[in-house]
Each structure stands twice: as structure tokens, then as C-alpha cells.
Amino acid sequence: MHPLYNQAHAWPDKVIRTTSLVDGVPPELRCFSEVDSPRENAANLFWFYTKVAKKRKEAMHPLYPKAHALSSKVIGAAIEVHRLKGPGLIESIYEKCLMRELELQGIAATNQVPVKIEYKGLVFEEPLRLDVFIENCLIVENKVVEQLLPVHKAQLLSYMKLLNVSLGLLINYHEPVLKNGIVRLILEGADKP
Predict the structure, then answer these.
(1) Measured between alpha carbons, how far is 103 from 122 in angstroms, rounded to an integer?
(2) For 66, which DSSP code?
């Protein structure tokens, strides 16, 4: 909860915000008006500071540097699997080979990880499964398709958001040259210092 939320409830019924709260904030983010209730005031303050925070550079995701360093090792492992097995096999074979290659390189990884979903206090598991989850900071989705589609990227991005993972790799083993089938996705703002 935002630190100003409790302060807002202690304020009187009618509150007028002044410009002193936002010196240096761009005009499009300023919203000054008389507010009818503390609850409305708290909601407006939360919205306001959320918008200001988005305009400012946020702190880097805490696991991004680790995920960034691991991503090049994982890409190297995937290229090694593809070099030895070539294109044309099914996804599960590439997944098992990648898991073995990561194990040989000393990189901790789990496969077929179930994804927990939370919605307004309800937590449940659905048959959504990550292909490979590496050291709790990097998601790898394996594909064997003619070409990667926007829906494949959306799927990986959804997994990243659900698990708050800053970086993900989408690897299409169908490509004759694997580097042409690798997509690296980063959550918005996760790589900003």
C-alpha cells in the first residue's frame, strides 16, 4: 500500500492539493482539484505518484543483472543442443536436451513449472507450465514452429508478468540457424538503472 494512503485518511473531508507537492513534475501529470473525500484523495494521490514514478527512471529489477548474465549462457547451451540435434525434432526433445546441457554447465534449472495465478485474493493453479525456469530469474519458452508469432511473445510476456521475472527467452528450434529463432524479452523498466 502506498505510504500516503494512511495519511490521506487522517486528513479532513475536503482537501485541496497544492502545487508544492509536485514541483518539477510535467504539467500533463498534474491534477489539482478539490477532492470530496479522503478515500478519493488517497486514490488520486496513489494514481498521481504512480504516474510520477513511471515518468522517473525506476530502480532496476533486482534479478535482472543475474538473468542478463545467465541469458548468454542459456543461448550458448541452446545453440549447442541445436548444433548436435539440428532442426526438425519435437519440442519436448529439445527441452530435455537443453535441461541436460544446462546441468552439464552447472546452471540450475527446472522444467514444466506450474504457474500460480492470483486474482483479487483467489490463488489457483492452471495447466499453464513454463518450459524451463532457470535459477528463479529467467524463463525459457521452447518452440518448434515455422515462424514465431505475436501470440508466442505474448505468452512468454504473460508468464514473466505473472511470476515477476524480468527476462525471458523464446527459442524456435525449427530455424536452420538458431540465432535467427531467438527472441529476448525484457519486462518494461526492468533493465533501467
Answers:
(1) 36
(2) H
pLDDT in tens, 148-173: 999 999 999 999 988 889 999 999 99
Which pTM value belongs to this model? 0.67
Domain ranges of the chain: 3-55, 64-186
Q: b/e map of 113-133 (b: 16 or more CB within 10 Å)?
A: bebeeeeeeeeeeeeeebbbb
- CB count in 10 Å sphere of residue 36: 11
CA–CA dist 8, 4 (Å, integer):
6
Residue 117, beta-bridge partner list: 124
Nearest to 9 by CA among 32, 43, 33, 34: 43
Instruction: Give the cell for residue 107.
Output: 546452471
pLDDT the model gives residue 38: 44
Q: Bridge partners of 133?
A: 110, 139
- Half-sphere exposure of 87 toward its Cβ, with a 13 Å CA cutoff? 16
The neighbouring-strand residues paired with 141 are 170
User: What's the pLDDT at 129?
Assistant: 86
Cβ neighbours around 108 below 10 Å, total: 11
